[in-house]
């Protein structure tokens, strides 16, 4: 028996613990192609175009390449309708068995190129890129000959099905009645839409669509969230469930809601807390309590990582930057063009999946208790000790512990360079150039910084800083002052297999960073709370609440006129000059084809705010991820470019709500303001105000395609819609067959302005199936029926 390659062994390890039979895998990304060139004397009505042949997949091993047009596969009917071809292909593969050999025919339409110089063959790519430069390097006389010939071939491949690489197999997703036994209250929009569908004769198609969405959750990968499945199966429940997430996770009485976060991540954790004494302890006694707290947290940490080795944890820390780069390059990490990254990244995925997050959250609850006690218990006792020691300006207390140092600083301008388990600084304009509350696995499982006053500067010239939980718990609490947070990557309330928290309770603050900053989460909780002040958030992407597999991220700003900026580094993968990818401002995103995305919240409670970002931003999701953006008050402006302001793509969910104010919505390109693409569920809600919507060139304002569901609702005011293609456009469903459902609602207020064919006081169905509904008042079914029957 030949020795297994490392990647083959790893893929076995990723599936070895599955309870269910392995799923057959073919290994391509694809779309239907309606125009196929003749190959020899054969003609084909349609084909499956291969956009990517996943490295080391059965298709790749057989020789199938990107650009090939598959025209036949054993047991799959290509002659039937084109709309259902991809569904028949997927079902045909799934019905097979591991080891089955499929005969695949594909048309390969390519250009053969050859070059010769001075009559001799030349293998030099520069001959095609810059022939003049190549010729100018040689003496006069010899000629360069370039030949390009189009070649169309009909090729036959034998593809042997293998087990689909996954992460510790699949899990059965329970029915909704088990996920939330008490149920979820139906919003009024649900009954209204049901009656409207009945009136328009759309109910049978809608029920078919629900069945297709539900089928996606018969089996699920390990990071699929239960509440996600609940709403994805029952789309109108996205509204109350998203509102519940905001209410339960953003508690005005507490800056961080770790218990609720654990519940929403399906990793409920109680934790044994409540051990800290009231104010009045001597310095040594208070530090003894902190040491005991760290010890209790470490006991939970040990349980959390019990299924991993020290070598694996060290590997995970070193591999995190590599995975971060790969995910920026491609959301399909198992088909990375840089194949040398695939095996180590999948190994990191495997290690992360063996961490007991419930125990890790229990450890974080211990840390949260210390943060909660900072003002009413910790600070008074340390202030008294500082006065008794003569009010020193710098660090006046140090204790070494098995988990790191405990440092207490005075009220001078202190420069903190070294990391510690706990730093408490009582005041002064301080400089932190250390990790500032960043854990680092076995070396430093917990790191906590509490700064009580001053205009402080937190500046990191390295990755992972300022409240970052790496294989542990990191926390940074700043109680007051106009502070500056400058970092590169994985900083400012972020986590990677851990819990990271940054809490700034007051002041006009500045947060700057690259990617993976300002509440980003991967396997754990990343949390940034700013309590008050006019704040600036600046990042380049994957930031300002970005939740990846196993992650829950929250960016919460309670008061102030704030500016959120998330773009400027990563050019879009669509190839449009001047457009950037963002993946931020409440974006849940998964590793496509491998692991579901997490839950991302951005909640701004007060102020006139500006949100600016690029592609994939402002309340949405990608590959079973869920993003929620909730702006509670103020006259706001939103600027995106593509997939923004209530969006979802590829089996994800997005929820966007702006509750008060006269708002302006802009998009540089289109695909904005409520759109659902490919088995996704979206709601865009603006409750009141005279709003302006500029939808760009295409696919905005209630648009749906490929079994998508979208509700767009504007609740009142004199609104302006600048979007010529029209609202509630239903595009193709050729990915899966079936239909989509998009409902555009404008309810009441003054006469609205449309530059499309939509009119005030109008109800009508468009295509398969968009519904436009502009009503003179509230959600009134009888009024809608009267308008429809005119």
Could you describe the 3D structure shown?
The protein is an alpha/beta fold. Among the domains are: 140 residues, PDZ domain (Pdz3 Domain); 336 residues, no CATH class. Helix content is 24%, strand content 29%. It contains 17 helices and 46 strands. The strands form 5 sheets. It has a 23-stranded mixed β-sheet that branches. Strands 11-13-15-18-20-22-25-29-33-36-39-42-44 form a 13-stranded parallel β-sheet, with no helix packed on it. Strands 2, 3, 4, 5, 6 and 7 form a 6-stranded antiparallel β-sheet that branches. Helix 1 runs parallel beside helix 14 and helix 12 packs antiparallel against helix 15. The longest helix is centred in the middle third of the chain and has 22 residues. It is globular, with a radius of gyration of 28 Å. The protein starts with 5 loop residues before the first helix and ends with a helix. The relative contact order is 0.08.
Offer a concise description of the structure.
This protein is an alpha/beta fold and 790 residues long.
List the helices and strands and how they pair.
Blueprint: H1 6-15, E1 24-25, E2 28-33, E3 47-53, H2 58-62, E4 69-73, H3 85-94, E5 101-117, E6 120-121, H4 126-129, H5 131-136, E7 144-160, E8 162-163, H6 176-179, H7 188-200, H8 203-215, H9 226-233, H10 238-249, H11 258-264, H12 283-304, H13 310-329, H14 342-353, H15 357-372, H16 374-388, E9 395-401, E10 404-409, E11 415-416, E12 422-425, E13 431-432, E14 446-451, E15 457-459, E16 468-470, E17 473-478, E18 484-486, E19 494-504, E20 510-512, E21 520-530, E22 536-539, E23 546-547, E24 551-557, E25 563-566, E26 581-584, E27 587-589, E28 599-604, E29 610-613, E30 615-617, E31 620-622, E32 626-631, E33 637-640, E34 647-649, E35 653-658, E36 664-667, E37 675-677, E38 681-686, E39 692-694, E40 703-705, E41 709-714, E42 720-722, E43 741-747, E44 753-754, E45 762-766, E46 770-775, H17 781-789
Parallel strand pairs: 10-12, 11-13, 12-14, 13-15, 14-17, 15-18, 16-19, 17-19, 18-20, 19-21, 20-22, 21-23, 21-24, 22-25, 23-27, 24-28, 25-29, 26-30, 27-31, 28-32, 29-33, 31-34, 32-35, 33-36, 34-37, 35-38, 36-39, 37-40, 38-41, 39-42, 41-43, 42-44, 43-46
Antiparallel strand pairs: 1-8, 2-3, 3-4, 4-5, 5-6, 5-7, 9-10, 45-46
Helix pairs in contact: 1-14, 12-15, 13-14
């Amino acid at each position: 028996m030949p020795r297994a390659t490392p990647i083959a062994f790893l893929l076995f390890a990723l599936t070895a613990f599955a309870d269910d039979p392995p799923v057959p895998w073919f290994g391509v990304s694809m779309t239907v192609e309606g125009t196929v060139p003749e190959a020899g004397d054969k003609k084909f009505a349609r084909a499956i175009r291969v956009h990517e042949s996943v490295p080391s997949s059965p298709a790749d091993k057989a020789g199938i390449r990107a650009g090939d047009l598959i025209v036949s596969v054993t047991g799959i009917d290509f002659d039937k309708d084109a709309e259902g071809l991809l569904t028949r292909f997927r079902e045909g593969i799934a019905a097979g068995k591991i080891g089955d050999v499929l005969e695949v025919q594909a048309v390969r339409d390519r250009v053969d190129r050859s070059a010769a110089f001075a009559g001799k063959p030349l293998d030099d790519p520069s001959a095609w890129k810059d022939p003049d430069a190549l010729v100018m390097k040689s003496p006069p006389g010899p000629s360069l000959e370039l030949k390009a010939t189009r070649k169309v071939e009909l090729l036959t491949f034998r593809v042997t099905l293998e087990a689909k690489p996954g992460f510790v197999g699949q899990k059965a997703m329970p029915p909704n009645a088990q996920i939330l036994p008490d149920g979820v209250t139906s919003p009024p929009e649900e009954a209204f839409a049901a009656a409207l569908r009945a009136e328009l004769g759309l109910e049978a198609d809608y029920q078919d669509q629900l069945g297709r969405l539900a089928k996606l959750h018969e089996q699920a990968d390990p990071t699929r969230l239960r509440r996600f499945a609940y709403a994805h199966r029952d789309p109108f429940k996205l509204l109350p469930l998203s509102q519940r997430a905001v209410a339960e996770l953003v508690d005005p009485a507490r800056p961080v809601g770790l218990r609720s976060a654990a519940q929403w991540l399906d990793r409920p954790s109680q934790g044994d807390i409540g051990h800290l004494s009231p104010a009045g302890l001597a310095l040594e006694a208070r530090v003894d309590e902190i040491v005991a707290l760290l010890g209790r947290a470490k006991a939970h940490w040990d349980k959390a990582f019990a299924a991993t080795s020290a070598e694996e944890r060290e590997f995970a820390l070193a591999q995190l930057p590599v995975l971060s780069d790969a995910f920026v390059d491609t959301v399909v990490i198992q088909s990375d063009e840089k194949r040398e990254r695939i095996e180590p990244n999948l190994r990191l995925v495997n290690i992360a999946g063996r961490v007991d997050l419930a125990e890790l959250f229990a450890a974080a609850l211990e840390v949260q208790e210390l943060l909660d006690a900072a003002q009413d218990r910790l600070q008074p006792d340390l202030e008294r000790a500082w006065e008794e020691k003569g009010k020193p300006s710098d660090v006046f207390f140090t204790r070494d512990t098995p988990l790191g140092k405990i440092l207490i600083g005075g009220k001078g301008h202190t420069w903190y360079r070294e990391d510690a388990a706990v730093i408490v600084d009582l005041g002064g304009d301080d400089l932190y150039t250390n990790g500032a509350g960043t854990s680092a696995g076995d070396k430093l499982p917990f790191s906590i910084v509490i700064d009580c006053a001053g205009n402080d500067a937190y500046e990191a010239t390295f990755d992972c800083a300022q409240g970052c939980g790496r294989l542990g718990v990191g926390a940074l609490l700043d109680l007051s002052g106009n502070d500056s947070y400058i970092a590169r990557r994985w900083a400012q309330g972020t986590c990677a297999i851990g819990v990271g928290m940054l809490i700034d309770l007051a002041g006009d603050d500045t947060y700057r960073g690259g990617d993976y900053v300002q509440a980003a989460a991967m396997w754990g909780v990343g949390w940034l709370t700013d309590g008050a002040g006019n704040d600036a958030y600046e990042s380049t992407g994957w930031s300002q609440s970005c939740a990846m597999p196993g992650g829950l991220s929250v960016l919460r700003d309670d008061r102030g006129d704030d500016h959120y900026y998330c773009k400027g580094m990563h050019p879009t993968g669509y190839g449009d000059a001047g457009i950037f990818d963002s993946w931020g401002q409440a974006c849940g995103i998964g590793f496509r084809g491998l692991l579901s995305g997490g839950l991302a919240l951005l909640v701004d409670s007060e102020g006139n705010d500006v949100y600016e970002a690029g592609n994939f931003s402002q309340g949405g999701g990608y590959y079973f991820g869920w993003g929620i953006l909730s702006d509670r008050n103020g006259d706001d402006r939103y600027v995106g470019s593509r997939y923004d302001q209530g969006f979802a793509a590829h089996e994800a969910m997005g929820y966007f709500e702006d509750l008060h104010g006269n708002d302006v919505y802009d998009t540089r390109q289109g695909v904005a303001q409520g759109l659902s693409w490919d088995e996704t569920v979206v709601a865009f809600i603006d409750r009141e105000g005279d709003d302006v919507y500029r939808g760009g060139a295409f696919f905005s304002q209630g648009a749906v395609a490929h079994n998508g569901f979208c509700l767009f609702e504007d609740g009142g005011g004199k609104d302006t819609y600048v979007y010529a293609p029209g609202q509630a456009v239903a595009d193709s469903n050729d990915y899966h067959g079936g239909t989509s459902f998009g409902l555009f609602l404008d309810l009441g207020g003054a006469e609205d302005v449309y530059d499309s064919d939509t009119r005030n006081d109008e109800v009508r169905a468009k295509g398969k199936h968009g519904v436009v509904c502009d009503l003179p008042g509230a959600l009134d079914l009888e009024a809608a029926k009267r308008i429809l029957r005119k």
